[in-house]
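Pasting as-is:
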Amino acid sequence: MLEVRALAADDWLLWRKLRLAALTEAPSAFGSMLAQWQGSGDREDRWRARLSIHGACDLVAFLDGLPVGMASGVPGEAAQTLELISMWVDPTARGKGVGDCLIRAVERWAVERGATMLWLSVMPDNHKAISLYARHGFTYRDETGAPLPGGIGGDRVMVKELASV
């Protein structure tokens, strides 16, 4: 059984567990680095703050009762534009619809907030994620996102126009 649940700040231990697993398993897929969230960066108040972004929606996917994926929707720069961030699915749960379920949940949240566009950044070599996003109607925008390590190039920006989900 696949279920998606929205989190609150009190769920910080669950979010922490998944986020650290994501940063460990796929270190090049995110703008943050594992080291930034360990040591002095690994504090309850910081994790709670991450789950308390105003206007955001933080989701965890459970497969047969076990947490296996995460994604967030956050306000974008424009009023009707929201961003999909922190998307990750545990390798043991890939290919089982977890990513699809998380994307649909973020899309529903975005539509409920009146968004007309959902965007995301993805590393240019993350072909499986790019395929997943493309299956859901995301297309490349003609712009580069955040610079890649080493300053050469940047991540790819993908967008999806929203009508109703």
